[in-house]
Design goal:
The chain contains three helices and four strands. It is an alpha/beta fold and 87 residues long. The chain has one domain: Transcription Regulator spoIIAA (2-Layer Sandwich), CATH 3.30.750. It has a four-stranded mixed beta sheet. The longest helix has 18 residues. The radius of gyration is 12 Å and the shape is globular. It starts with a strand and ends with a helix. The mean pLDDT is 91.
């Protein structure tokens, strides 16, 4: 399983572009580190999941933990929205 996380500043916002298969503890740890770093420096981060191909419960939990508070989600479609729906 391979993945890539790109961090870019777009129109004054930090955007993390997620690519590939974020699966396993390494993917979860790296995603968490990238989000924490972006939030620490900018207060908020946009996560663009449009290029993710496989979703792992651990990575989804990392994203869901900050949704609305310090993470805005873009991309990923209706399936990802359903998976992240707060209960």
């Amino acid at each position: 399983m391979s993945f890539r996380i790109e961090s870019r500043e777009v129109e004054g916002r930090v955007v993390l572009y997620l690519h590939g298969q974020l699966v396993g503890s390494d993917a979860e740890r790296i995603l968490r580190e990238q989000i924490v770093h972006a939030v620490a420096h900018h207060g908020h981060v946009v996560v663009d999941a449009g290029e993710m191909t496989v979703f792992d419960p651990g990575s989804l939990a990392v994203i869901q933990a900050g949704l609305g508070d310090w993470i805005t989600l873009e991309g990923g479609g209706a399936y990802l929205d359903l998976m992240l729906r707060r209960r």
